[in-house]
Design goal:
By secondary structure, the chain is α+β, with helices and mostly antiparallel strands. It is built from 5 helices and 11 strands. The strands form 4 sheets. Strands 3-4-5-6-9 form a 5-stranded mixed beta sheet, with helices on both faces. Strands 1-2 form a two-stranded antiparallel ribbon. It has a two-stranded antiparallel sheet with strand order 7-8. Strand 5 (77-84), helix 3 (90-103) and strand 6 form a beta-alpha-beta unit.
Amino acid sequence: MYKRQGKDYAIKGEPQDYASARQLAEDDRYQFQWWALSLIEARPLGGTGDSKEGKKGADKGIDGIITFIDDSSGKGKRAVVQVKSGKVSSGHVRDLVGTVDREKAPIGIFITLEEPTSKMREEAAAAGVYHSPGWGKDYPRIQILTIQELLEGSTAKLPPSTVTFKQAGKMLKESADPQIGFAFDQD
């Protein structure tokens, strides 16, 4: 909070560098979490619509989700996201693996303000890969991304979230009834 001639005001905005990201994490860990999720276009757990905020409290190891469709079933799959702004260890990655297994999610993403340890990277690599049936590609099952990497343009490795819609019916002819307009072939 800043003071100016009898008026208190807060400066709000999104961090553009590591130092301001660290400051946000120290000032408000929930705002940091929601901001970090926005860097990979993840929806906060409990978030609605375009809200950048989710629920506070117990999250069972899920801070955010990214939904994608990568097969012909049309059923959405979820990548679960966990954000940490403090000290991190390989135990955090093992916890994410457990959350991914429990939620039957194909991919887990771990966002950290701090640099991950080599043991954390080993745990992530040991989790294996997710093979996307629709795209025929493998993606790391557990991905670790630092805030610094995200600020430099890195992103999560996920199947493209492209959705193909059912083809519209073929237009036949204009109807005589102005309420109907056009008739369609229902092949």
